[in-house]
């Protein structure tokens, strides 16, 4: 992206609204504003960060719109450039006319994410904070909003900076002693290196373990309802959703394909999937539905094995359990209002829930169990950092390798050059999270996922 141009874009979403905001950023922002804007008070100068009423007029002196405009002088702006924001009426024709007006003056339409890209390039945000801006815009639940706000405020950035600072201290000392090859590095320094690297390795491992929870809270979890036909899967889905979305009949095999619906369970975005009942069938459509169910199981974050408690479990129930092998499983006994005498531990050491879709008995307990499983213990304190981006997770995993090698070298009195090499490599991977060592291709990929105007 060319950051020397002055750019313009709507900062508010598409669609008609009462008010829209158009943002301009760059060296020519103020002169561009005055080219078409006439303040009501006829001011010739605008104070920074103060809102002014006035009219936008085109070259023919026709009024385009009545607006409020604010000029914000660098560096106290989002992009750390001069910025102008125009609050206009929110009709799409009004917005298009204003954009066309300023494009005729030579102001370029911004690319997706270009305002945030400039904030990053000008040191307003590091890369993890910039990514959090996009996460905040696309947050599906209050939990994902809170995570994005925390990361945007520098929660992850501070942790990465702390890790980098400790590694840089080791690197500085190592390279200093490399300049004096006739002297050995003092034992106390080696001992300090070992302590620091051991602590860093432990902390990075702890953070990487939060990724599954962070991913679920931002992207959502896939929960499959699996069981034999007529076990009550569709009724359970409707009960959890609070509305009739799945067709419920007494005829086994009513659900022949999977039905997927979204909901929020205690702030966790969830995709609930009602699947075809698992059994041997001669129906071509049902066979395909069963095949798709088995395919979906391998991708599920959690499987609810649905068992009808009004009858004794049979081989089809155990076959359904076997098909879920390797996935996290909750055993959910349905129709508890009609239950017979059963051993509810028949299926082994899985969490067991007893519910009635008809009376709602046990549903709150099931919801709480799902929430606790997906959230684990990571959201209980404000100090906890959760990874939400696969890019950050992969960078930290790769960072562990050179840290482990450097630790081994320190413990075995290896050549200082090997230690320095591994520390530089670890710093490189940490820099990919903050943006210090990120390539242009990766930056383009990250910011292209933003909306225009942010």
From TrEMBL:
Where does the chain bind K(+)?
230, 249, 251, 254
Tell me the domain of life.
Bacteria
Question: GO molecular function, one example?
Answer: GTPase activity
Top-tier EC class: hydrolase
**InterPro entries, from UniProt?**
G_TrmE, GTP-bd, GTP-bd_TrmE_N, GTPase_MnmE, MnmE_dom2, MnmE_helical, P-loop_NTPase, Small_GTP-bd
Q: Which residues bind (6S)-5-formyl-5,6,7,8-tetrahydrofolate?
A: 23, 85, 124, 454
The record's subcellular locations are: Cytoplasm
Q: Where does Mg(2+) bind?
A: 234, 255
Which cofactors, if any, are listed as required? K(+)
Q: Where on this chain does GTP bind?
A: 230-235, 249-255, 274-277
Its Enzyme Commission number? 3.6.-.-
Q: Which Gene3D superfamilies match?
A: P-loop containing nucleotide triphosphate hydrolases, Probable tRNA modification gtpase trme, domain 1, tRNA modification GTPase MnmE domain 2
Q: How is the cofactor bound?
A: Binds 1 potassium ion per subunit.
Pfam families, alphabetized: MMR_HSR1 (PF01926), MnmE_helical (PF12631), TrmE_N (PF10396)
Q: Name one GO cellular component term.
A: cytosol
Where would I find the TrmE-type G domain in this sequence? 220-375
Which keywords belong to this entry? Answer: Cytoplasm, GTP-binding, Hydrolase, Magnesium, Metal-binding, Nucleotide-binding, Potassium, tRNA processing
Q: Which CDD domains match?
A: trmE, TrmE_N
User: Which family, according to the similarity comment?
Assistant: Belongs to the TRAFAC class TrmE-Era-EngA-EngB-Septin-like GTPase superfamily. TrmE GTPase family.
Q: Function, please?
A: Exhibits a very high intrinsic GTPase hydrolysis rate. Involved in the addition of a carboxymethylaminomethyl (cmnm) group at the wobble position (U34) of certain tRNAs, forming tRNA-cmnm(5)s(2)U34.
State whether it acts alone or in a complex, and with which partners, per the record: Homodimer. Heterotetramer of two MnmE and two MnmG subunits.
Please state what the protein is called. tRNA modification GTPase MnmE
Source organism of this protein record: Desulfuromusa kysingii
């Amino acid at each position: 992206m060319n950051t020397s141009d002055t750019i313009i874009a709507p900062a508010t979403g598409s669609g008609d609204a009462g008010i829209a905001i158009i943002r301009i950023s760059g060296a020519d922002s103020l002169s561009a504003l005055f080219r078409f804007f006439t303040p009501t008070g006829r001011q010739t100068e605008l104070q920074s960060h103060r809102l002014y009423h006035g009219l936008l007029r085109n070259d023919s002196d026709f009024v385009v719109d009545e607006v409020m405009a604010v000029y914000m002088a660098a560096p106290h702006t989002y992009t750390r450039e001069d910025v102008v924001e125009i609050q206009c009426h929110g009709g799409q024709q009004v917005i298009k006319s204003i954009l066309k007006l300023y494009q005729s003056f030579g102001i370029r339409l911004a690319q997706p994410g270009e305002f945030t890209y400039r904030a990053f390039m000008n040191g307003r945000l590091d890369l993890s904070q910039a990514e959090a801006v996009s996460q905040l815009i696309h947050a599906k639940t209050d939990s994902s909003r809170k995570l994005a706000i925390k990361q945007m405020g520098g929660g992850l950035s501070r942790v990465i900076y702390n890790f980098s600072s400790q590694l840089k201290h080791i690197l500085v000392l190592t390279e200093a002693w490399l300049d004096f090859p006739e002297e050995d590095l003092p034992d106390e320094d080696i001992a300090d290196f070992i302590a620091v690297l051991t602590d860093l390795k432990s902390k990075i491992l702890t953070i990487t373990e939060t990724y599954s929870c962070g991913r679920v809270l931002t992207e959502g979890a896939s929960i499959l309802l699996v069981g034999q036909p007529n076990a009550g899967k569709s009724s359970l889905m409707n009960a959890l959703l609070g509305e009739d979305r799945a067709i419920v009949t007494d005829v086994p095999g009513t659900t022949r394909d999977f039905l997927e619906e979204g909901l929020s369970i205690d702030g966790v975005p969830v995709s609930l999937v009602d699947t075809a009942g698992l059994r041997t069938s001669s129906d071509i459509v049902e066979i395909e539905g069963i095949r798709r169910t088995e395919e979906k199981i391998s991708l599920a974050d959690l499987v609810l094995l649905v068992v009808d408690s009004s009858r004794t479990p049979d081989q089809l129930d155990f076959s359904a359990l076997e098909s879920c092998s390797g996935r996290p499983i909750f055993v959910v006994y349905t129709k508890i209002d009609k239950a017979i005498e059963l051993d509810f531990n028949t299926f082994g050491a899985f969490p067991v829930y007893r519910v009635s879709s008809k009376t709602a008995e046990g549903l709150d307990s099931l919801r709480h169990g799902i929430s606790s499983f997906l959230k684990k213990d990571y959201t209980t304190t404000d100090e906890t950092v959760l990874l939400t981006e696969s890019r950050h997770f992969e960078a930290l995993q790769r960072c562990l390798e050179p840290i482990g090698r450097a630790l081994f070298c320190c413990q075995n009195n290896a050549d200082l050059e090997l230690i320095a090499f591994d520390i530089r490599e670890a710093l490189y991977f940490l820099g990919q999270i903050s943006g210090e060592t990120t390539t242009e291709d990766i930056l383009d990929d990250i910011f292209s996922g933003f909306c225009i105007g942010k």
